[in-house]
Design a protein that fits this description.
The chain has 4 helices and 14 strands. It is mostly beta strands.
């Protein structure tokens, strides 16, 4: 995200001063929610990194990464008085040749975007208690049409309208300290209406369906060093056997993610503040996977990760 302008509006009347901060800018990116300010939306939401090899549910909403790296777009955003955030962005699908050249996503057999993809975001935030507490409530969404599997022979498209709500809470023990204890909680709910005209013609899928995704997580950071986190997630929707390719066609999955992260250095008081290393151990436990609770735990995964960033 690129910030182009930062202006402060001032108004004085009858000897009383009134000040309002106003920030606006433009964003250019290739994944809806990439530009978001909070950690509840899909791109930057928990878990912040995950295994690319572990089993994952077959169903996900388009807003939940369904068109990431398949599009590029630009828009405008604004933050008024540190209270109201609003954004409007329009995306367009990247061509097959462009995606092949970038090597960002598998192209063969993947959906292709048809027409413009509008994305919108609106949020309210407020700090209180001497900046120790911050809360946010928001909504976001988009509309996208695709040729399923890149096949446009049906002369129809599948279209998806996603509407989401999210909330965040943060508590900081000492706002003046960069190594203060901190509690962070995030939650989001995405509802998707599916109009599957092309898939109905090409594969006999049900013409209409819906899909819901819910995630909620909380973490406690101890001295900006050790951070245990836990999340509950659930995806549920209408049965559509020929669309999802699942026995029974039920896309429901649910479970928990537990993680503990350790950041030994990188803080101002550490002996090596220029070395930023994050070690994490993560466990994903399913209570339901692709519509069944039977043997759902067979898809559980344990994941170790290491992130590093050097500051010069």
């Amino acid at each position: 995200m690129v910030k182009l302008n930062n202006a402060e509006l001032r108004y004085a009347a009858e000897g009383e001063a009134w000040e309002t901060d106003f920030v606006w800018g433009v964003t250019v990116n290739n994944a809806p929610t990439m530009q978001d300010l909070w950690n509840s939306t899909p791109v930057w939401g928990f878990p912040y990194n995950a295994s690319g090899l572990a089993p994952s549910p077959a169903a996900a909403t388009m807003l939940d990464g369904g068109i990431a790296q398949k599009v590029a777009g630009g828009g405008v955003y604004m933050l008024w008085n540190d209270l109201v955030y609003a954004e409007a962005t329009v995306y367009g699908g990247l061509s097959r040749d462009t995606r092949n050249a970038l090597g960002a996503v598998p192209v063969s057999g993947s959906d292709t975007i048809v027409g413009a993809v509008p994305y919108w975001r609106l949020a309210l935030q407020q700090s209180f208690g001497e900046e120790r507490h911050n809360v946010q409530f928001g909504t976001y969404g988009m509309h996208v049409s695709v040729n399923p599997g890149g096949d446009g022979s049906a002369a129809r498209t599948d279209s998806f309208t996603d509407i989401a709500f999210d909330t965040n809470y943060q508590w900081i023990a000492d706002p003046k300290s960069v190594v203060s204890d901190m509690v962070s909680a995030h939650a989001t709910w995405i509802h998707e209406n599916q109009y599957l005209s092309a898939s109905n013609i090409l594969a006999g899928a049900n013409r209409r369906g819906n899909l819901d995704t819910m995630r909620a997580d909380v973490s406690y950071s101890i001295g900006a060093t050790v951070t245990p986190s836990i999340q509950y997630f659930r995806t549920s929707g209408s049965a559509n056997p020929l669309y999802y390719g699942l026995p029974g066609g039920v896309p429901n999955s649910a479970g928990f993610i537990g993680e503990i992260a350790y950041v030994p250095w990188g803080k101002p008081d550490s002996p090596w503040p220029w070395i930023n290393v994050r070690l994490a151990a993560q466990y994903v436990a399913y209570t339901q996977f692709n519509g069944t609770t039977s043997h759902a735990g067979d898809n559980n995964a344990f994941y170790l990760s290491l992130w590093t960033a050097w500051r010069f």
